[in-house]
Amino acid sequence: MHHDEMWQVYAPNGEAISGEGWNSALDNPEVNGSDKIVGVAIVFLYRMNTKGELEFLWQKRSEKVDRYPGYYDISAGGHVNLGETLVEAAIREAYEEIGVEITAEDLQFMIEAPFNKNRFAWVYAVDWTGREENFRFNDEEVSEVKWVLYKEMEEFRSKYAKKPLREDNFTFLTMNNWLKMHGLIDGNL
Prior knowledge:
22% helix; single chain; 5 helices; nine-stranded mixed sheet; alpha+beta
């Protein structure tokens, strides 16, 4: 987390409130006790491996971060900065956290939903099949990445993911439906 950022504030319906920001130095609004809502842009990288199996990239949080050190998290994600679009935030977070350059055309929209009382989340998928895997950890938030087979993701999530992801069945069920709709799977998670 960068303690000098201003995060975009949103209305309960997910609309950005023009010009209204939350100072990241105050920590997340739910920790601070505020009723303000901030946004997060989340990017899941997926690929078909050489055996034709679907995999998702997970990042391991560095021991240097203050929240959930050493636990696994989604490929990349973070708060939307004041005045930044969701797409800009997703592209920036992917570069900052795992050093990959993606474009707006790479982003496949998955879901928009309240993440908790104080956060609204926009989740995107990026097909990484056949792409170079020179992941770089630019801001010391990430210590490593790991490709996890889709069929093993629930077990992995329940054992190694940070607590909010272990408890977030809604996003993963929605992701499952998105994968079915796009012909990437035919079964359940």
